[in-house]
Write a structure and sequence with these properties.
Keywords: Disulfide bond, Hydrolase, Lysosome, Protease, Signal, Thiol protease, Zymogen. This is RGD1308751 protein. Helices cover 33% and strands 15% of the residues. The protein has 9 helices and 10 strands. α5 crosses α7. The N terminus is likely disordered. The protein binds 2-acetamido-2-deoxy-beta-D-glucopyranose (3 copies).
């Protein structure tokens, strides 16, 4: 073990010590830095440029294959272009396995067929896409997304709720603010706390701050939460009959980091709970004209990522990326 680790570290050191740049990309590099407001210290620019060139090449190769029909989705350079996949995983995700709280299990509804496609955005259940920033609070965005949806279902009012309230105040439930957390622990916090503030009264800051919950500004209650057993069939029934559902996925692949559009399928994805690293919101599902089935997923990386902040993920392909592995919603 030790000699292998030593060798790996040594090799990395050699690579980053002498990054070589393709000078024909100078203008493109400057344009990219300007567009995304990037400024670097002199001693880090070389390494960032090398990472960017690497990503650029990987995207180009993928899109060449996409043009030949070898992939169902394309990639694009975006604001994550200067992050290695390892750095990306550290800052942009934030889902931590599963906590141990008790929850009820979703029962398949006894009604007959559900629609072939569902998109809760069209029915007022979904707020605009947000950006979690450099803070692993995806779990809070995912939890707020399904809670906002269930409150809308109950009251007919779409009131954005505070992710920051969850980031700051649910530590004793096992959540770790910007270092990650669980949606079930978030729901348990709201239930015990007797409310969750609106995001207008308690705005998102992308950092850990002290808890400032104020019952005066609460706009939601939680009575419990329901877990959907790991089955894409049951997940479809749940989305169709309940509304947007909080889910966790394996997102730690360059293909996800730079997704532009199309049907996302990643052969390297795991669907095992221990490999899931990111939480998102399932807002619907459907089927393309060629019969390919997808899940409609809202991410929290801003509107410039993917398709206006959304991604279509392969459905009924052996639970690709674990989308049905940890799925739940609150009862209100
Ligand atoms: C939030 O708190 C965690 C745990 O103490 C810490 O590791 C992390 O760096 C903090 N993140 C931010 C952005 O403040
Ligand atoms: C939440 O429950 C408390 C206690 O029953 C109640 O006073 C409050 O009005 C409820 N809030 C909402 C937004 O429904
Ligand atoms: C899967 O991962 C391996 C090792 O990291 C990599 O070589 C391969 O290209 C990946 N396959 C896909 C489809 O991304």
């Amino acid at each position: 073990m030790i000699p292998t680790l030593f060798l790996a570290t040594l090799c990395l050191g050699v690579v980053s010590a002498a990054p070589l740049h393709d000078s024909s990309l100078d203008a493109e590099w400057h344009e990219w830095k300007t567009r995304h407001g990037k400024t670097y210290m002199m001693n880090e620019e070389g390494q960032k440029r090398a990472v960017w060139e690497n990503n650029r090449k990987m995207i180009e190769l993928h899109n060449e294959d996409y043009a030949k029909g070898k992939h169902g989705f394309s990639l694009e350079m975006n604001a994550f272009g200067d992050l290695t996949n390892t750095e990306f995983k550290e800052v942009m995700t934030g889902f931590r396995g599963m906590s141990t709280t008790e929850m009820s299990l979703f029962q398949e509804p006894l009604l007959g067929d559900v629609p072939k496609s569902v998109d809760w955005r069209k029915h007022g259940y979904v707020t605009p896409v947000k950006h979690q920033g450099k803070c692993g609070a995806c779990w809070a965005f995912s939890a707020v997304g399904s809670l906002v949806g269930q409150m809308f279902r109950k009251t007919g009012k779409l009131v954005p709720l505070s992710e920051q309230n969850l980031v700051d105040c649910s530590w004793s439930y096992g959540n770790k603010g910007c270092d990650g957390g669980w949606m079930d622990a978030a729901f348990q916090y709201v239930k015990d706390n007797g409310g969750l503030d609106t995001s207008e009264s308690y705005p998102y800051e992308a950092r850990n701050t002290t808890c400032r919950y104020n019952p005066k500004y609460s706009a939601a209650n939680v009575t419990g939460f329901v877990r959907i057993p790991p089955s894409e069939h049951l997940l479809m029934k749940a989305v169709a009959t309940v509304g947007p559902i909080s889910v966790a996925i394996d997102s730690k692949h360059p293909s996800f980091q730079f997704y532009r559009g199309g049907m996302y399928y990643e052969a390297n994805c795991s669907n095992d709970l221990i490999f899931l690293d990111h939480a998102v919101l399932l807002v619907g599902y459907g089927e393309e004209s060629d019969g390919k089935k997808y899940w409609l997923v809202k991410n929290s990386w801003g509107e410039n990522w993917g398709v206006n902040g959304y991604i279509k993920m392969a459905r009924d392909q052996n639970n690709n990326c674990g989308i049905a592995t940890y799925a739940l919603y609150p009862t209100v």
